[in-house]
Automatic annotation (TrEMBL):
This is Nicotinamidase. The keyword Metal-binding applies. GO terms for molecular function: metal ion binding; nicotinamidase activity. Its EC number is 3.5.1.19. It comes from Roseicella aerolata. InterPro entries: Isochorismatase-like_dom, Isochorismatase-like_sf, Isochorismatase_Nicotinamidase. Keywords: Hydrolase, Metal-binding, Pyridine nucleotide biosynthesis. It comes from the Bacteria. Pathway: Cofactor biosynthesis; nicotinate biosynthesis; nicotinate from nicotinamide: step 1/1.
Amino acid sequence: MAGITPDPATDILGIVDVQPTFMPGGELPVQDGDAVVPVINRLLAGPFLHAFATQDWHPAGHSSFASSHPGKQPFETIEMPYGPQTLWPDHGIQGSPSAQLHKNLAQARIELVVRKGFHREIDSYSTFFENDRRTTTGLHGWLQARGMRRLFLAGLATDYCVAWSAEDAVKLGYAVFVIEDACRGIGLPAEGGTTIDAAKRRLTAAGVQFVTSAAFA
Ligand SMILES: [Zn+2]
């Protein structure tokens, strides 16, 4: 899709987990994760007047950490009361330097920062709901109050926090776009390829549109 002009009354950029903990050198590095920062900054410098950001924000000993489950390794899956949960290396620790928004991210147009994953017993990939898909982060209420209808997502990681956010946003009635070159994924093995492939199939079927930042030129 070419030539998207965001309407400041209804369109907002959602910047998901652009934190050093998910970048090369961080605790849960996404390949090329830091490459999203300049792309997002270009979107914030022109096309989008409004943005919100999210931060993965876990207490030490969080239940999504493999280290909290004796004998388990990162990237194994366990069954939690709310469903299957992938286990991760310790990451996104509240207040730690690597959990801050990336220092080069242009923050002037970021009007809200949503922190998620702070309940010890439940993970939160989506910016809308924790992983039980019921406990709200409050973001929907804020977007509704602001009159936002179209959500453009960027950040980390394509196949987890971006994908789950996009899926929930569609269910909540937003028109949702994922800006592909402003995202990077983890890409664990999955049926028919990686979790990135699987997420893209699932989101496309749900009505999410995939675009690139060139569409906003
Ligand atoms: Zn996390």
